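quick q for whoever's on today - can somebody do inverse folding on this one?? i tried earlier but teh output was garbage lol. tokens:
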């Protein structure tokens, strides 16, 4: 992963099309290294979460080119690589496992991290999750506790418990969530460890109960007419 980090550090300092075209081979090498890792990561997660078996690289990875049409940030390229491994692929609406590699202090998340959960879910999915929390909040809490080394991270929660739920609910803070995500920030030492793949698989295995719980609610939402 050293070559991946090296490239990402360079693109963060030279985020323009001229530099990118002159160094495209370095990008392609970094991308191929990352994709090879993700392919093995999919297989590894599949050993404890069969719902993601059969996914391909294309199902889980994103374009490196940024869509700058409606953004004030006009840098044409990302400064990270990311892969979202979830049932039926990254656009399915299901909860999954996100692997993110980025130099510390740069770009999208300001560093590398492992996430499990949902970011900006559709309203009907969020409603279904809140309904499940109101009925089985103790189970939801147990899945969070089981994810040792991860923390529940939503930087955009509601200020109040949503309408229709008791303000004094013991699970009020969970009901306020808009992005139910477990997060584990990792440093460069973690990314460059020779056992990165094994360590990442082991970490995500701790979040499988959380992911499965969320996807039960997602499935309920999709089944509603």
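ok took a stab at it. sequence:
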């Amino acid at each position: 992963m050293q070559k991946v980090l090296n490239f990402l550090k360079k693109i963060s300092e030279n985020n323009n099309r001229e530099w990118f075209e002159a160094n495209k081979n370095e990008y392609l090498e970094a991308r191929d290294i990352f994709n090879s890792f993700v392919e093995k990561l999919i297989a590894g997660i599949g050993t404890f979460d069969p719902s993601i078996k059969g996914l391909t690289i294309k199902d889980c990875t994103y374009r490196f080119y940024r869509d700058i049409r409606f953004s004030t940030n006009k840098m044409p390229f990302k400064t990270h690589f990311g892969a979202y491994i979830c049932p039926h692929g990254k656009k399915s609406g299901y909860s999954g496992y996100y692997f993110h590699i980025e130099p510390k202090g740069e770009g999208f998340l300001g560093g590398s991290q492992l996430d499990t959960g949902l970011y900006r879910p559709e309203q009907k999915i969020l409603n279904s999750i809140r309904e499940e929390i109101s009925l089985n909040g103790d189970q939801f809490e147990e899945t969070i506790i089981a994810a040792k080394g991860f923390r529940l991270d939503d930087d955009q929660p509601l200020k109040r418990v949503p309408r229709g739920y008791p303000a004094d609910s013991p699970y009020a803070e969970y009901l306020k969530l808009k992005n139910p995500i477990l997060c584990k920030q990792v440093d460069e030492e973690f990314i460059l460890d020779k056992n990165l793949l094994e360590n990442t698989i082991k970490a995500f295995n701790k979040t499988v109960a959380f992911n499965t719980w969320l996807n039960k609610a997602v499935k309920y939402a999709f089944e509603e007419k």
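fwiw Residues 2-223 form a domain with the BirA Bifunctional Protein; domain 2 fold (CATH 3.30.930). also The chain has a mean pLDDT of 95. so keep that in mind when u check it
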